[in-house]
Amino acid sequence: MKVNAPGHGVVLAGMIAAMLLTGAAIFSAGSVTHGFVSYYAASRLLVGGELGPTAYDDRWFGEVVQRITASSVREIFIPNPPTMSLMALPLVRLDPQPARAVWLLASVVAFIAGIAALVRHRARQRDALSSPVLLLMMLAPAVFTNIRIGQGYLLVAGLFAAAVVSLLRGRDRVGGVCLGLRLALKTSGVALAVLLLARKRWTALRSAIVTAIGLAIAITPFIDAQMWFDYLLQVRAYVDRPASSVTAYQTTLGLVRHLCVADPQWNPTPAANCAGIAFVLPTLIVGAATMLTVFLGMRAARPEPWLAAAASLSVLSLPAVAEPHFVLMAIPLALLRLSMAETVLIGALLIVPMEWTAERFTTGWSSLLAYPRLYAAWGLWAISVRQMWTDRP
Question: Across the strands, what pairs with 267?
Answer without folding.
Answer: 263
